[in-house]
Write a structure and sequence with these properties.
Strand content: 15-25%
Helix content: 25-40%
Largest sheet: 5 strands, antiparallel
Structural class: alpha+beta
Number of helices: 12
Radius of gyration: 44 Å
Order of helices and strands: HEEEEEEHEHEEHEHHHHHEEEEHHH
Distance between the termini: 106 Å
Strand order of the largest sheet: 4-3-6-5-7
């Protein structure tokens, strides 16, 4: 998840955020913000906004007030005020865009409760911060064992150490109220830090843990989504999706957040559709609506006549026409008369003009052709088998084989001599040399 600049090291120090590979958000692309006001110069004499946005582990963000003598930039690691002690985070946003974010989230930048920035993180701060990050995995597993031993019905999903290692925040999920006072005492004695328990929902837990969704990409809740809205089954009904919990549920066990992404467009498109509760009356009977294809603007109706069932696709305009006829007291003969037949375009027959091989060329099994034995004389095998049993026939066969061969050789010799005579006669007479 880290950017390429984290891997380009110069003398042992990586470029980019310069956090030595320990990004506070878990990765350079997690909950990242694009500052679209970065290239716009402020007017002359305008003071920069005195608040910044700081990101911590797993995308947790907060706003802090800066001091005049401290100048920070995006990507700097700083030490900020915490309760108690201090915490270490990474600056993710500065300038006028921070004011816009604070107004959108309802945070008053003039409030006295707003915490301040102490300093830029020193080497000792970074070392202590890294030690706390290394202890988080082991601490979480030990805390889970303690909760199981006490019989508490809760699930510890993550733990976050403060930058100065004075406090540890445990994030958990539970379906019912849990009394964890005894657990806090046991963990405080074991870890020697201040313990804070914070309950989160299943969606927040999935966002902190991360993962890959069914679409093949990283979870939206762990990359960019921060506003977790409730998702109902009505969103699936509006989009004509089957109510299958296995396909509609995400890794958190709740309905997928992406069901709300296109819900407004579906609801706007369905305003131009007739009501699905309206029955279409025909002479064949009443037709019930069963499905709608929003993209093709088709509505499917179910008709039953004489025990035969049929599904008829009708365009939205045709459905309005039938409803208008029914209001006027007219009933069409059948729905099939209102079906719009679309001529399918003939698909071109593409030929292999470039000489490319097919993908299935290796699936064919090439068998070697067997040599045909005794194809010219099929009775040879029978004759040989008879000769093996009859020794006199073997001698006779050898004599017969030798006879024709000699006769053939004499005939070839006679033909050769006659051909040589004709060639000598056709040659011109050459003068004799003295």
């Amino acid at each position: 998840m880290g950017c390429t600049s984290c891997g380009n090291k110069i003398e042992g120090v990586p470029n980019g955020c310069k956090s030595n590979g320990n990004c506070a958000t878990g990765g350079c692309e997690k909950m990242s913000v694009f500052n679209w006001l970065n290239d716009i110069e402020p007017p002359a004499g305008h003071k920069p906004f005195d608040c910044i946005e700081v990101s911590f582990k797993n995308g947790r963000k907060d706003f802090f007030k800066t001091k005049e003598d401290i100048r920070v930039y995006t990507g700097d690691t700083i030490a900020v005020e915490a309760s108690p002690g201090y915490d270490v985070g990474t600056v993710t946003l500065t300038g006028e865009l921070v004011k816009h974010q604070m107004n959108r989230k309802g945070v008053n930048h003039n409030s006295k409760e707003l915490k301040s920035v102490y300093r830029k993180a020193s080497e000792s701060d970074l070392e202590k911060w890294k030690e706390g990050r290394d202890l988080e995995n082991e601490t979480m597993h030990r805390a889970r064992t303690m909760a199981l031993n006490l019989g508490l019905r809760m699930k510890l999903g993550d733990v976050e150490f403060q930058g100065d290692k004075s406090k540890a925040v445990f994030y958990y999920t539970a379906e019912e109220r849990v009394d964890f006072r005894e657990l806090i005492k046991v963990m405080a004695d074991s870890f020697k830090v201040r313990i804070e328990m914070r309950q989160i929902g299943s969606r927040q837990e999935a966002g902190r843990l991360g993962g890959i969704g069914s679409c093949g990409r990283e979870l939206c809740c762990s990359t960019w989504l921060t506003d977790f809205r409730s998702v109902s089954t009505g969103a699936a009904r509006y989009q004509q999706l089957s109510l299958n919990p296995e396909k509609l549920a995400g890794q958190c066990g709740k309905l997928k957040c992406c069901l709300n992404f296109e819900l407004d467009q579906y609801m706007e498109a369905l305003k131009s559709y007739p009501s699905t509760r309206t029955l279409l009356e025909t002479k064949e009977g009443k037709a019930n609506h069963i499905k709608t294809d929003v993209f093709k603007r088709l509505m499917y109706y179910f008709v039953s006549k004489d025990g035969k069932n049929s599904i008829v696709p009708l365009s939205v305009e045709r459905v309005f026409d039938i409803i208008e006829l029914n209001k006027n007291g007219e009933t069409p003969h059948k729905l099939a008369d209102f079906v719009d037949f679309v001529e399918e375009e003939a698909k071109p027959d593409y030929t292999n003009v470039v000489g490319q091989d097919e993908l299935t060329r290796f699936d064919k099994v090439f068998k070697k052709k067997k040599k045909k034995k005794n194809s010219q004389n099929p009775n040879k095998d029978n004759r040989n088998s008879n000769n093996q049993n009859n020794p006199q026939a073997k001698k006779k066969g050898r004599n017969n084989q030798g006879g024709p061969k000699k006769a053939g050789n004499n005939r070839n010799n006679r033909n050769k001599n006659s051909r040589n005579k004709r060639n000598n006669q056709n040659k011109p007479n050459q003068p004799k040399s003295e």
